[in-house]
Design goal:
Rossmann fold; 12 strands; 2 domains; 5-stranded mixed β-sheet; 5-stranded parallel β-sheet; 10 helices; alpha/beta
């Protein structure tokens, strides 16, 4: 049967996949929540939810550096990738050997589409619909929660040395907007390097967010940034809720509510 992924690539599956390799942490978690744990044969070292998978599944490298021989040994029916998490070279190398599905998620609509595609591919439409319904219900509730909250300017940091932030056309930026945060770096590319000395000139944020991933920010980094802002509130935020699409979205909106309460 032929399938089309979110990059409009077509691939053929001879049967419903029973041996799945996931090269994307958020999609590994989604597979588990779809009831497909027994079908997962390979994951990355960054696939940390649920935690026990690291000891029960084969780790086939990272999201950017794969161990091809390990993947070949596992003989997967399908490999799950993502446009942002995995490189074009990895996808091309793998699709010469096995069917590969590539997701491309920049908003909730595309996340719901990906979950529905998994439901179809893996014959778990009921489970996929339940997750999507939960996300849509909680999204509607959250929109009602934030409707009267004033917009605040924000800078969302993801890296240091060099300092890097989330910018336009990213899932993070989409969720920031949804949460009534105006990203001061939205016009500077997807993940631009920035000079923190210029932060006041480039937008003077009300809030500086330090993501828990991929960089392990600490208090000293918050202090370092604080020297260049104009009384901005610096908060450490859970990067998984801002960047993991899939079933984690069903929990994200409660986290965003709590974040707003912390910022009051």
């Amino acid at each position: 049967m032929d399938f089309t992924d979110q990059m409009q690539r077509t691939f053929t599956l001879a049967k419903t996949p029973k041996r799945i390799i996931s090269l994307v942490p958020s999609q590994t978690e989604l597979l588990y929540d779809l009831g497909l744990e027994d079908c997962i044969v390979g994951i990355t070292k960054f696939c940390i939810h649920p935690y026990h998978l690291k000891s029960t599944k084969t780790v086939v490298g990272g999201t950017k550096n794969i161990k091809l021989e390990k993947i070949k040994e596992l003989q997967p029916d399908i490999i799950l990738c993502n446009k942002e998490e995995n490189t074009k070279e990895i996808v091309e190398e793998l699709e010469a050997l096995f069917p590969v599905h590539v997701s491309d998620v920049k908003n909730i609509e595309e996340s719901l589409e990906m979950i529905a595609q998994y439901g179809t591919m893996f014959k778990c439409n009921t489970e996929a619909s339940k997750i999507n319904n939960k996300i849509e219900y909680r999204l509607k509730d959250f929109k009602n929660f934030v409707k009267d909250i004033p917009v605040q300017k924000v800078a969302y940091f993801i890296w240091r040395k060099p300092w890097m932030v989330a910018g336009q056309d990213t899932f993070i930026n989409y969720l920031l907007k949804l949460c009534k945060f105006e990203n001061i770096y939205e016009s500077q590319g997807r993940y631009p390097e920035v000079e923190i000395k210029k932060i006041r000139l480039e937008g003077d944020p009300d809030i500086v967010m330090l993501s828990s991933e991929p960089y392990p920010f600490k208090e000293e980094h918050a202090f370092e940034l604080g020297r260049f802002t104009h009384h901005a509130k610096t908060v450490f935020v859970d990067g998984e809720y801002f960047s993991w699409y899939g079933s984690r979205l069903a929990k994200a909106f409660d986290y965003f509510k709590q974040l707003h309460e912390r910022l009051q």
